[in-house]
Amino acid sequence: PEAKALRTVRQRITRYATWSAAAIFLTVCAVLVWYKWAQAREEQAVKLALDYAESDPGKSDLGRDGRAAIYRLAGEHALRARKAGCAVDAQDQFHKSLSTLARAAGAGDSATEHDALLQDLAAAETALGGSPEEVDAGTKLKWDDTQKEIHAALRDIRSSEAKLEGLREVARRLAVKGQGARATALASSLYSSPDKEKAEALGVVGLELLTADKKDLAAKAADQALALFAAKDRPALAPSAVALAITLSRELPEAPKKMRPPAEDEFNKRLGTVEGQARLKQWGEARQNAQYAKFTSNQRLQALTALAGAALDDKTAGTNDVALAIQQALSPPKGPPPSPWLLLRLARIGARAGVAADSLQSLADIIPDRDLRGRAQLAAFQAQLAQGKQSADVKLIDTVEAHTVTVSAWLAHEEWARRNPGQAGVVKSWEPANRAFGLLGVALGSQR
Predict the structure, then answer these.
(1) How far apart are CA 438 and CA 416, in angstroms?
(2) Does the pLDDT of residue 35 top 80, yes or no?
(3) 0.85 surpassed by pTM
(4) How far, in Å, CA of 208 to CA of 218, rounded?
(5) Distance between CA atoms of 113 and 125, rounded to whole angstroms?
(6) Which of 149, 144, 207, 203 is nearest to 179 (CA)?
């Protein structure tokens, strides 16, 4: 009886094992079939978007700026596919984006949108670089090659403010990837003259490296920046370089005795002091200095924006400083209006800090440049999607379309579709230009 019972148990175990193996096999097959189907759907969506960008109607509707954005998004999708050769495919699309923007610049297209798209491209290209194993597999490029691609995109940015903001974002991303030294190298190669702009760029990079806890690399950036002020014909002080020096407890070189310091030195030193104190968590002193009585409206806004950026990086300071900077921006200025790039930077800081979307939209409304106003509206829209429980509501896009122009509105469609990849049916009902961006959003969202 015991032997018979044992045989019965063994038979049952064998049957169960066979059934389990069969179930596992069928599950694996089903997953593979689904994966292949999803991959084919993604590739088809990207192909449709690219075909439209190359068609005569697409060239007419999208213009050079819209097509450049399409190519950049297609490059991001190719890179995220993580299959052999995808890095070169992505690089090809990024090259098309860059060359299209170069033609747009030559044709006199919008300078501000051109610069914003180059910022997007440079940021996207930070994902190209990878480990030697990834390079051998064809899924990434060597970091030296990646640095050259990023340099080319940042180099073509025409506005000095826009170039600095592009470098700031690139430095942040490179530092996270353990490539912070390349951010310093980019600052040096992009700004060859030993002037204030170079010192400011090195200061911006150094502050981003500090935020990423790369103190040794930040110190090297500070060495280069401060060396510029030790020269006989030193440039005007750069606020970010001052902030970096204060944060690292470094002394600023004294101006040569026979040299009269540039008139802007006093303001630049005060502005850098505000940010430096904030990054040392000396919040009371920083906030007091940001309200210096002799500041003009624009100077106070610059100080409060620097303070808001430091508060965002600190992650424990809350959003009061961001709200105060926005309040200052919304106050009628006494004198010339503030820089639209400064207002856009503040809008992006506010979006990352979780400021209410309506406050960000109010900030966007006062930006005089229509393209940068659209970019600020896009930041508000992205914040709304990230914060709200109604991210699947397609009507949210109306808040962007009602206030902005083409490229930002198209990117809003891409962002919505990226967050709602299961809504391909909705995307297919959009008009052609929006549909092209929406299809890319569906493809990118499906890769998560």
Answers:
(1) 8
(2) no
(3) yes
(4) 8
(5) 18
(6) 144
